[in-house]
Amino acid sequence: MGKRAGSDGESAPSPIDIHVGARIRLRRTALGMSQEKLGDALQLTFQQIQKYERGVNRVGASRLYDLCRVFKVSPDYFFDGLSDFEARPMPLPSAAPVSLSFSLAEEPAGLTDGPEPLSADQTELLTAFTRISDPDVRRRVLDLVKSLSVASS
């Protein structure tokens, strides 16, 4: 899935690039890192970081590797939340087509709406959450937060 053509002839970011960018922003803010500091770590300008976070610039494999190193996460962190694989042809050289496609899972409001930073409460929650080392405890905390958010709607 590449860029989609917009009505003005320019390409719009793909949903995958937007999702990966939102995950970059989420991790950066959870670590209390500015765009400028992340840019310095990756030898980029903060404007380039902004473009990655908005999904305007696609993150290549080597850049993804660098982000994993800086953020101390595995590559799957950036794709967490992508799901619903459905049939979609994807031709491979010298082979029969393979069927793959996906759609974005429901993304919480505020993560992909724009470049606004997270609130202090959101940052504190994410920072505390990332410090939970037990995966079962993390899952239970996530389930609790989800159930509370549904109950308050």
Automatic annotation (TrEMBL):
It holds the Pfam family HTH_3. Residues 24-78 form the HTH cro/C1-type domain. GO terms for molecular function: DNA binding. SUPFAM superfamilies: lambda repressor-like DNA-binding domains. It comes from the Bacteria. InterPro entries: Cro/C1-type_HTH, Lambda_DNA-bd_dom_sf. This is Helix-turn-helix domain-containing protein. It comes from Acidisoma silvae.
